[in-house]
Structure formats: C-alpha cells, structure tokens
Amino acid sequence: MLQSQSRRLEALRSRLIEAHQGHLLAYWDDLDDRQRELLLEDIGQVNFAGLPGLLRSHVLDEQPFSLPRDIQPAVCYPARPGLDQVGFYADAVKQGVSLIHHNKVAALTVAGGQGTRLGFDGPKGAFRISPVKNKPLFQLFAEFILGTNRRYGADLRWYIMTSPHNHADTTAFFEAHRFFGLKPERVRFFQQGVMPAFSKDGKILLDQKHRLAFSPDGHGGCLLALRRSGVLAEMAEAGIEHLSYFQVDNPLVKPIDPLFIGLHDMTGSEMSSKTIPKADDLERVGNFAVGDGKTMVIEYSDLPDELAHARDAQGNRLFDAGSIAIHLLSRRFVEQLTADEVHFGLPWHRAVKKVPHVNEAGRRIEPDKPNAVKLESFIFDAIPLARNPLILQTIREEEFSPVKNATGVDSAETSRRDLNRRAARWLESAGFAVPWREAEPDGLFEISPVLALDADHLREQMAMPPQIRPGNAHYWE
Ligand code: UTP
Known about the structure:
By secondary structure, this protein is of the alpha/beta class. Helices cover 30% and strands 20% of the residues. The chain has a seven-stranded mixed sheet, sandwiched between helices. A three-stranded antiparallel sheet has the order 1-12-13, with no helix packed on it. Helix 13 (412-429) packs across helix 14 (455-461). It is globular, with a radius of gyration of 24 Å. The chain starts with a helix and ends with a strand. The protein binds uridine 5'-triphosphate (UTP). Residues 110-117, 124, 161, 163, 192, 216-219, 221, 247-249, 376, 404 line the site of uridine 5'-triphosphate.
C-alpha cells in the first residue's frame, strides 16, 4: 500500500476508534481491493459528527414518549358531508378533478421497506394480490392511474421510492411488465437513504466483513430523498402542486382521490391525511390527536390505556381517528421543510429487531431473537410542521386493508378477501344480483380500475348487468 493511503487509513482508524467504532476495520487485512473500496464507501455514508448524540438519545436507551400536556382528539371532515357541507364537498370534487385534469397532482408511492413480516422474496409491490387475475400490487396502482387518466383526461406522473436493497428488482419488475401500460417516462423511481443498525451497546453492525448493516431510513425518509434525488426540482418544473402519498401495501387505496385533493387544496392545507374509525380501542394504528395546539399522530403504543378506552358524553370512543398512511403533501411544503437538507430531519423512532451480522469471531450470525437497534423516521411526523393540516374520514371497507403479515390480521388473505367483498358490493350497487353465501360473496370478483375507480363510476360504466353464476370467478375490465 502506498504511504499516503496507509496514512489515510490510520487517520480513519483513529477517527473510528474515537467514535467507538474501531471494529469496522477489524477485517481490513482479510479484504481484497474491491471489498476495501466498498467498506470505505459504506463508512463514508455514516454521519460520525452526529453519532454520539444519536447514540445517547436513541440507541443506548429508549427515550420515553412524552405525551403533550393538553391532548384532544383531532377534528376530522366526515366521509359523507353533512347538509351544510354538501355544496363545499361538491366544489372540492370539482377542484380536485380540475387539478387532476391539469396534471397538478402526482402519485407518490413509498416502496422502500424490507417487508420482513410478509417474508416475500422480492419487492412487496410485486406481491400478487387481486382475487381473480392475481395481479401484483404495483399493477393495481398502475391501472388506477390509467383509469384516472382516462376518466379525467389526464396524464399523471407516478413517483416510486425504492431503497438500495430493492431498487434494481423494482425497476426490472416494471420493465418486465412494460410498466403495466403506463408511459415509462411518466414513472420515476428514486432511492431513499439508509441508516446503520446498531448493537444495543451502540456499535454499528457489520453485515459482512466489508459491508455495514444498513437498512432503509423509514418512510419519512421520502422527504429528503425527494430533494436529494432531484425529483422535487423536477416536480416544480412540471408544475406539480400536490403529492398523493400512499404505501405499497394497501391494494384498496385510491391513489388519486378528487374529493381529498380538492379539500386539501381549497383549505390551504400543507399536509392532509385520511382516517378511519378504529376497529377497537387498542387497534394497532396511529391515533390522530391535537396536542399543544398541533395536529399529530400518536402511535398506538404511545397512547396511554386510559385515553385509548376514554369515551365522550355520548359514549363514543374519544380517540377514534386511526391513521391509514394516506396523505397529500403540498410540493411547496416539502420544499420548505427540506430547504436546509443538512439540518432537516424528522424524529427517529427506535425498534429492536433481528439483524444478521458478523460477530467478533468473524462469523456471520442469523440471530434468533432481536439483537439490534434500527432507526426509522415516519412521514406522519411532518403533520405537526404543516399549516392547516386537514383530516378526512373515509370508509375502511372501501380504502384500507394492508398486506403486512404472512398470515392472520392484515395478511394477503384478509386483503384479498376485502378486495373481493368490495368488488361484490360495487357490482351490487350497479344492479347485479351478486350471490352471497353466509357473509361472503359466493365466487371471486374483480374489477379492473381501468374500467371503474369506485362504485358510482362502475354504475355509470355498466348499463347491462350480465348473469353471475354462484361460485365462479368474474372479471371486468
Ligand atoms: P412498514 O412500516 O409496514 O414496513 O412500511 P415494511 O418494511 O413494509 O414491512 P416490515 O415492517 O419490514 O414487515 C409501510 C410502508 O412504508 C414503506 C414500505 O415499503 C411500505 O409501503 N417504507 C417503509 C419505505 O418506503 N421505506 C422504509 O424505510 C420503510
């Protein structure tokens, strides 16, 4: 090794030792040139200046969540307007449609997660879910955008956030499926940042002798990733005003919703959210609340039991507004938040997870119990920073049934069942005699979003109800 290289290595070694991370170079002598390069690249991604503070505040100990003193349930716009709101909602739909027609709105999907609970080998968006055609999640969203373009005379853009571990597979999946009929130039992928995983005593873990154990930095990472990738500037150039944010795991989502967009725009909200009434007091969803004058989401694990079970004077659940991770963000809001990209950051949330790593003896371990601290930021932590944040209630059966787990609650099985039930309900409302057996539709039903985006749309599209035979599979496109 040249002398200057060896001096640089020694300088790095001392810096790492000072930061209590000297072990990162423990296997240097075993590595070839390419591996050394990769290791240096990985180390270069770590913010060592901020590390001591981060370790103290988030890694070595869990910061207890401090509940705002003055905590109230958040006020939400109802799913169906009251008599005094009918005109306002109708105007909002018109405004939403106009923004869509003029391509002032873009879809934004966060798809960088690791999907560990589902345990699917591939990007989660490639997971096949629809009841008849077994379409993957990405295809359902693509077809929704195609259907929206067709219905409102638009040519919308779709931004998809990936992470280093699934970027290549995700783009290859779209290419292999010819972008599901969308124009490739209207679909833009960008990658999110990563964070190292730490041992519980604050050491960055090595995934291999020459690679740090990095994981994606949370869906909240999309804000900085939008700026750093240049996507935010492209959006400004294209005249996009609002970003319609949704997660890759909810096949029932309406990726573009005129009412929601119109309300967000007309009320001057910088960040809006959809909510559903909680299924029970302790449902594992975030809770919309207002604390110290700010709208926020309080995670289910942070909401004290007495508040989770609290009732109002009419006996209704007080904290009933569950968060379903569907938002609208104004492009200008994201620009302002991230203008100082060095100092901007949403708070970190700590989770103790199983992370494979190289141990002190140089052997790679697959732990059988949680061994490492992972840090992620969450998009909903931007809500308290927004002006006029709006919350719109919606209907669970119509818009929310995520694929999180391999089995049980929020699994492929429940999500597919809910897609099937929704299609059956839409068909019934369009005048079809749908057979039911016990509480389930008798058969499999699927309606391509290219044909209809909701029940009313389906009614307009299908004048002549065909025969439905019990127990069969039925598909409309
Ligand atoms: P989840 O919090 O459900 O995480 O993500 P996950 O990674 O998909 O699954 P688990 O927890 O490992 O089982 C909710 C949404 O946020 C995206 C996911 O892709 C999903 O759409 N996400 C999550 C990101 O885009 N980046 C992240 O760093 C984390």
